Automatic annotation (TrEMBL):
Provenance organism: Alcaligenes faecalis
Domain Threonyl/alanyl tRNA synthetase SAD: 167-202
Statement: the UniProt record of this protein carries the keyword Ribosomal protein: no
Cofactor requirement: Zn(2+)
Protein name per Swiss-Prot or TrEMBL: Threonine--tRNA ligase
Keyword Ligase: yes
TM segment ranges: none
GO BP, one annotated term: tRNA aminoacylation
Amino acid sequence: MQDKLYLTSNSLTCIAEILECYHSENERYAVRLDKTLFHPQGGGQPCDKGTINGHEVLHVAQNRDGHVLHYLHVRLPLGPAELHIDRDHRLEHARLHTAGHMIGHLVERIGWQAVKAHHWRGESRVVFRNPKNALPPFLDDLSNRCAEQIQLAQPISISFQEGRRQVAIGGLGQYACGGTHVENTSELNGLKIVRIKNKKDELSVHYEMMD
């Protein structure tokens, strides 16, 4: 069983063991490790960037067997491997992901239900449906509510309930989630609600991080 350290740790370096390395498509090699810090692409979040034994990791994905595979341009020998995560890239998407959760909780408080989210730079949004005929939020009001939560520095906590990973923001609530997150909401300073689109019974809140 592969140990997916990114689910429980914010560490950026570790030593792992290369168990398998084989030629994949597009002149790339797939590397399977006994444990990994690399978050794979999925759950509305891009994969981590970084290196294995000094070689750039081009892509990270989870296969049908649940193993996280790391794709490189070079074949790596089996044995010990030093993993390094790109800190700036990890932090950028952890901030976007946590911001999406916070927006989800705040909009759900006025009667909407979050159904999907996308946490990519320039494309970040949370989509809601309207089961209770709720009124859409005003952009300024939602922006102010987000600013209040950022000022409160609400802690982000991780727990596992019935085998599912849960991510909670202070007393706002929790979502089942496998993504990376910051430690508290003060790290979301610079969040901007760009626009709110309301079409029939679907609401989309678009946002970005300004720094």
